[in-house]
Design a protein that fits this description.
With 116 residues, the chain is α+β, with helices and mostly antiparallel strands. The protein has four helices and five strands. A hairpin with a 2-residue loop joins strand 4 and strand 5.
């Protein structure tokens, strides 16, 4: 095992709803986005530090308040979608919490001036 392994990967209600919605759509792109997001579970269990780190000052206040987070990571998905996750600890063990799965437009609004 390389990196910091996680005990579990859990979805916020919002992330679970978006993934379910994507899986129900008839188009291939939506299904590919959901499939890739779900396939990241194993990778994040093995190495929860895999994603791109969002510097603390760049974490949007909206996300900081809504999810009470101190750290944020981003994983790229197909069609310019992004998976946003945080690492929390319970009983001293790391857990990955996928807080949101967002399209390019939402990501760009949350992170103005950020490339990607």
């Amino acid at each position: 095992m390389t990196g910091l392994g996680a005990v579990d990967v859990v979805l916020s209600d919002e992330a679970a709803a978006v993934l379910a919605s994507l899986e129900l759509r008839p188009d291939r792109k939506s299904k590919a986005i959901a499939k890739r997001a779900r396939s990241l579970r194993g990778l994040l269990l093995e190495n929860c530090l895999h994603g791109e780190v969002v510097r603390k000052p760049s974490i949007p206040d909206y996300l900081r308040r809504k999810y009470d987070i101190e750290n944020l990571y981003v994983e790229d998905l197909p069609d310019f979608w992004r998976l946003l996750y945080t690492i929390s600890r319970r009983n001293g063990k790391p857990y990955v919490v996928i807080i949101e799965v967002v399209n390019h437009r939402t990501y760009s609004r949350r992170f103005p001036g950020r490339l990607g």
